[in-house]
Amino acid sequence: MNYSGIPRWIYGLAVVGGLFVLLPLAAMVLKVDWTQFIPLVTSESSLTALGLSLKTSAASTALCLILGIPLAIVLARRPFRGQRFLRAFVLLPLVLPPVVGGIALLYTFGRQGLLGKDLELAGIQIAFSTTAVVLAQTFVALPFLVVSLEGALRTAGNRYEAVAATLGARPTTILRRVTLPMVLPGVASGAVLSFARSLGEFGATLTFAGSLQGVTRTLPLEIYLQRETDPDAAVALSLVLVAVAVIVVGLSYRRPRHATTPVEAAV
Amino acid sequence: MLLAAGSLVAGLAGCAGSIGAGSTAAATSPAASASPQLSGTVTVYAAASLKATFTKLASEFEAKYPGTKVALSFAGSSDLVTQITQGAPADVFASADTKNMSKLSDASLVDGKATNFATNVLTIAVPPSNPASISSFADLAKPGVKVVLCASQVPCGSAAQSVEKATGTTIKPVSEESSVTDVLGKVMSGEADAGLVYVTDVKGAGDKVKGIPFPESSNAVNTYPIATVGTSKHKDLAAAFISLVTGSEGKKVLGDAGFGAP
């Protein structure tokens, strides 16, 4: 028998903690008007919003991978001056209210923003476009990928990479054949979490991208708007988002029991 | 001033008959010795567009009735209705449209009848430089002009829709926001060339935006009703606050902010 060493009262509080999360979700499920559920979630505006949400979240997850993997590798593998500050700033969107992120993005990519004027001269308009939604989602989701991957990289260590280097492999080859295969589960769970965070993004999108059906109105914005006139529709759509989130988070925590060795992963 | 306060209190005593009941704080003022006095905290839930005016009226109320406090909560009218029907401890509800007040009275949460106390009309808001050279309502329908509106689900959006319908104009907005402050924000930051907001929003924003009034706005006049919430435990205070808003003090403050008379 395993000795768990957990005092009994801890279980009591743990149960309360679990209920604290589950009860509001249950309350929402109870509020769903099931006879109207299908028509509510398959209305044109709902499907458009869901489609847009899935598309933009996929795009921002891709962007997170492109930008986040190099960032995580640099943070995990090369100690440098100011690294702590860089890490703190990269993680900032995790704790920043999304509306603040939206304002920051507005003053960067907006028409009057830091880069906006040059972008406009180049014929690129970001404000009120689907691109703005993807940027807002990437901004808030990037830290999830970086944190998840940096942790995986540190845990894996760099012994195999060192061996590969002594055998004459070039850095890019090592990255492709050793490092990335070794931390693939970390990349995967980071990507899934980024996708989930993108799907739920609301504040930065509302502030930065606006809200127009089929262009910038993602599912959370649609829920916020429906709530004004049709609370039943808002609840039904919320449930859809909860379901998607449960599936996504469920996927990311289905990890292998023991860490894959690079040899296994590389084969 | 004192006389006015005294007669108001007396008038209230006649209809409410609960002045002083449940009062806990004992403040002493000249009015106190003459008639039963008001004390305690009155909680006012008011539409977001009333923020500046009601904040001012609240301090006038506290000055007029020493020993009272006004707790203010501002949000979109429909949010406030939801909160009140879910049991939020509001004494007074001031809505930005009659529709949301009806929602509350349908839930039997309005004491007596609501009183209309102000009106508001739409205006075109543009950045101070007016980059798209907007001068009329019809200009908003021009191609290439980035116009931001409220979504039709919220009062400012349905007002915009009424004007569009009445004038036969079709505006293709680049964004439909869920609150009038979001529309104003997009114009202030220069992201949008123009937006439809209320006259009072432009006035409140100072020189950050320019307002362009248009005659067609008379097709959609928003009426603001105020009422005592049925579950209020401070109906005497609520009635006194409503009298202040609908009385001469209220008319002055609201008029200065650009609201029209009901």
Characteristic terms for this protein:
heterodimer, A: mainly alpha, MetI-like fold, B: 262 residues, alpha/beta, D-Maltodextrin-Binding Protein, domain 2, 9-stranded mixed β-sheet, 9 strands, 39% helix, 23% strand, transmembrane (chain A), transport (chain A), Molybdenum transport system permease (chain A)
Outline:
Chain A: Residues 50-252 form the ABC transmembrane type-1 domain. Chain A: Keywords: Cell membrane, Membrane, Molybdenum, Transmembrane, Transmembrane helix, Transport. The complex is a heterodimer of chains A (267) and B (262). Chain A is an all-alpha fold and 267 residues long.
Architecture per CATH nomenclature, i.e. the level-2 architecture of the largest domain in chain B: 3-Layer(aba) Sandwich
Helix content of chain B: 25-40%
Q: Low-confidence parts of chain A, pLDDT < 50 over ≥5 residues?
A: 257-267
| SSE sequence of chain A, one letter per element | HHHHHHHHHHHHHH
Question: What's the shape of chain A?
Answer: globular
Major sheet characteristics of chain A? none
Q: Into how many domains do the coordinates of chain B divide?
A: 2
Work out the largest interface and the residue count of each chain: A-B, 23 and 21 residues
Q: Give the structural class of chain B.
A: alpha/beta
Element pattern of chain B in H and E: HHEHEHEHEEHEHEHEEHH
How many strands of chain B? Answer: 9
β-strand amount of chain B: 15-25%
Topology:
The complex is a heterodimer of chains A (267) and B (262).
Chain A: H1 8-31, H2 34-41, H3 44-77, H4 83-95, H5 98-109, H6 116-121, H7 130-156, H8 159-166, H9 171-182, H10 184-200, H11 203-208, H12 219-229, H13 231-252, H14 262-266
Helix pairs in contact in A: 1-13, 2-13, 3-7, 3-10, 3-12, 4-7, 5-7, 7-10, 8-9, 10-13, 12-13
Chain B: H1 2-16, H2 30-34, E1 40-47, H3 51-64, E2 68-75, H4 77-85, E3 92-94, H5 98-106, E4 110-126, E5 147-150, H6 155-167, E6 175-177, H7 180-188, E7 194-198, H8 199-204, E8 210-212, E9 221-229, H9 235-246, H10 248-256
Parallel strand pairs in B: 1-2, 1-3, 5-6, 5-7
Antiparallel strand pairs in B: 3-9, 4-7, 4-8, 4-9
